[in-house]
Each structure stands twice: as C-alpha cells, then as structure tokens.
Design brief:
Blueprint (H helix, E strand, L loop, with lengths): L2 H18 L7 H24 L9 H22 L8
Helix pairs in contact: 1-2, 1-3, 2-3
Length: about 90
C-alpha cells in the first residue's frame, strides 16, 4: 500500500475511532485525523509484531481492524496526556 493509501486509511480510521471513542481528547477533528494516521501506523506495526498481520491491502478487513484499534489506542493515550493540560495546579 502506498503512502497515499496509508494517509487515507489513517484519516478514515481516526474518524471511526472518534465515533467509537467519543469525548474530549483535545485538539478537535483535525488533530483526531492526524492521530488516526499515527494510530494506523501503530496498529500496523503492532499487528505485524504480535499477530503477523500488517497493513498490506487497503480493502482487507484485517487492515481496517488493526488501523482502527491503533487509532483508538493513540486517541486514548492522547486523551490521557491532554486531560489536565487546561487545568492549573493550585
């Protein structure tokens, strides 16, 4: 899969992950989509390391599952990192 395919897959996976994981992760939709691309890469890497499943074919169900799971993981981590960013300690 080419770089354009990775980007499109990541953008869509980020949007799906945001629908699955609603809430205030911070950064809005643009950041969510960027995190989706990062999550798709993370999901592909983890999938290939753990299960031998990577991001080879754009239309493969396993590709979409690992990309969405990776995007959810990245969104969860991003939400934890940015959770207290707006608050100040007294």
């Amino acid at each position: 899969m080419g770089i354009l395919g990775w980007i499109v897959l990541g953008l869509i996976a980020g949007a799906i992950a945001k629908l699955i994981l609603p809430g205030r992760q911070g950064g809005g939709w643009i950041m969510t989509l960027i995190l989706g691309v990062v999550g798709a890469l993370l999901g592909g890497w983890l999938g290939s390391m753990i299960f031998g499943v990577g991001l080879e074919d754009f239309w493969s169900l396993q590709t979409w599952i690992v990309a969405i799971v990776g995007a959810i993981i990245v969104l969860l981590v991003w939400g934890l990192v940015t959770k207290n960013r707006g608050r100040t300690s007294a």
